[in-house]
Amino acid sequence: MTDRRHRNAPARRHGRTRQITPRAHWLLLSVIAVTLSTALLLQGYTHHMFGITSDAVTGARGRSNAVPRQVTHGGPVIADAATSAHTARVKDRTLALTFDDGPDPVWTPRVLDVLHRNHVHATFFVVGTQVVAHPELVRRIVAEGHEIGVHTFTHPDLARLAPWQRSLELRETQLAVAGAAGVTTALLRPPYSSENDALDDAGWSVLKQADAAGYVTVLSTQDAEDWQRPGADRILAHATPHGHAGQIVLMHDGGGDRSQTVAALSTLIPRLKAQGFRFATVGASVGMAGELRRAGPGDQLQGMALIGLLRAGDWTVWLLGVLMCVAGAISVLRAAVVLIAARRHRRLRTGDRGRSWGPPVTAQVSVIVPAYNESAGIEAAVRSLLASDHPVEIIVVDDGSTDGTADLVESLRLPGVRVIRQRNAGKPAALNTGLAAASCELVVMVDGDTVFEPGTVRTLVQPFADPRVGAVSGNAKVVNRGGLLGRWQHIEYVVGFNLDRRLFDLAECMPTVPGAVGAFRRRALLALGGVSDVTLAEDTDLTMALCRAGWRVVYEEGAVAWTEAPASLNALWRQRYRWCYGTLQAMWKHRGALVQRGAAGKLGRRGLVYLLLFQVLLPLLAPVVDIFAVYGLLFLDPVRITGLWLAFLLLQLLMGRYAFHLDGERPGPLWSLPLQQFVYRQLMYLVVIQSVFTAVSGSRLRWQRMERYGSLWAPAGAQDPGHGLPPQDPGSAPSAPYDRLPPQVPYDRLPQQVPYDPFHQPAPYDGLAQSPPHNGYRQPPPHNGYR
């Protein structure tokens, strides 16, 4: 018989519902991604492409035919290299102390202290990355009357760079100095430079380009060789001039441990002063003026922006490293917890005590099939239910389908199958319609795209021999696993969902009985007021409500159902978006379980915390892992990064192999697991990001149908129209037609909710004598509750 019920959707009774698809956040995320990428690329380039090394690391000196003779035999300060090329020497009995590779947060302040105590000014050739990291030291250098020079941004050998890279190195350093101290400088010392006679043609081309940019090149005449760290005495000897000629002394305040330099400097200055030497900056020692100039407003702003961006990059890399460690720790923790729990769960289920739930459950079962445009697979689904080796009544609730779903089922004329039509009101309303029409205490809910094996219903209801059990989750498997996307979902179902359910069963905090294969006590559902339409994940919401009401929810891995998985990325996105968003809604709705006691407390402090950590936080951290992996491959040790990635992949493979073993699956599809890391995984964490933004924005989504592909099949025996009907004694009267079944409680007369009291303590449960006391949680308003 076909019932035609015209009932408005519960959501419509709530009034106008805001339904939006947030898109502005994708623009925001894109801007953040571009900014983050720019900062990381700059940070990687400036910190890892070159870097400070020993000044002795120089290439072999090449030909010097292009170097003018007056430069080779001239003074260490070289100007107008691109034109007439003249040089300047330091005045007699004058020393210009110069310090390279700083500023350093440890050694530069100590050098400045020594200079200050001895009333000496010096010249500091700074590295741009160090200026960005320690701008306050540059300000101190300038404030104390010292001179600043450019030593490039990343300390490369300029002779080996392209002209545009040289310009970038000098320009970035100049901007960093302007942003840090508000000045610009005309002085340049190329890294790995030495004395005039060491210049070759490649080095001379660098000086000519620098001159065209307005720089005066400063070489050295006396190398203290402190970069070798030979000891303070040797540094002192190398820095002491022979005779009275003026010198430009090369020393270092950065690039490593400079304690020997500080010690030698403390002795050098007083000793040479006693010998009649004076100390001056490079500019003062050669009579040059205007080497330091006030930076223009534009340069200062650009410099401050550069410093801010690069420092943000430094903090970002640090934060990425921390989050990478957190994500890794969470992943390893989940793997350990899930594997240990799965092994223990299997031992309990296969042991003598854990195998039997009690006396066999043989009572007839009502099977509810909510269907909305399921014509592609509904016949296979219904016939598979008829093939059950357990007595069933089948109720197909057509929720306003437009593809002839109800007509198709009716045309089959299968005994024991009842079709109820209603206007489109959503899946929860369809389930409630079926619940009101059911005649059995035990109710199985199955999606219209799912087929059961003959023993699925029988296996699924056996746990109800335990009067404490209010719901049972079955084992859903992917039927269309032929393509790569199907294999990935097959892996996820076996490794993710089923391993998790074993853990939840063991911890007594099952958050979800899947809509594809689940069984319930009808009176438990009626006591809750039926299936709520407040969330998109009605199965998760319902399961959590049962847990909070004191019922136990278990997992029966032997109750296998085959379901169609999305066959396109677009369909997969829509499905997982609905699942994830609905789960977030359910978690928020039942957050009160976190502070409750008993079964509700187990759900809150075990189940909800687990979901928050591993299904929300971990996917949100997943982009960090990808970003850091790319950053590491480009700028860090690629071998180490690849090794870490392979280690995590091996961990997933081990989990997958064990999960497939538990589920009796062949491990062949696991070969596609490495490929899953490059498409599927990114799609999943983008789904979580979208869901979180949707939840925060307070949006509400409709129940949307999924694409069906007709890949379902009915098991052998499903063609027998009498198979699965309740057995009858010979000569007994035939079963009453379905239109003569006892009247059921209409959905709009289901028990009303009472205000939820978080301090209410449920009475002890004494088995079949009574249902677990209703927890009375109040239905939240029709919006998702995230406002």
UniProtKB/TrEMBL annotation:
List residues traversing the bilayer.
Answer: 26-45, 315-342, 607-631, 643-662
Q: CDD domains this protein is in?
A: CESA_like (cd06423)
Print the keywords alphabetically. Answer: Glycosyltransferase, Membrane, Transferase, Transmembrane, Transmembrane helix
The keyword Glycosyltransferase belongs to this UniProt entry's keyword annotation: yes
Any GO molecular function: glycosyltransferase activity
Q: Which InterPro entries match?
A: Glyco_hydro/deAcase_b/a-brl, NODB_dom, Nucleotide-diphossugar_trans
Where do the NodB homology domain residues begin and end?
93-280
Gene Ontology BP terms:
carbohydrate metabolic process
- KW Transmembrane helix (keyword) present: yes
Q: What is this protein called?
A: Bi-functional transferase/deacetylase
Q: Which N-terminal stretch is annotated as signal sequence?
A: none
Gene3D superfamilies linked to this entry: Glycoside hydrolase/deacetylase, Spore Coat Polysaccharide Biosynthesis Protein SpsA, Chain A
Spell out the Pfam families in the cross-references. Answer: Glyco_tranf_2_3, Polysacc_deac_1
* Sequence similarity: Belongs to the glycosyltransferase 2 family.
In this chain, the stretch annotated as Disordered covers 719-787
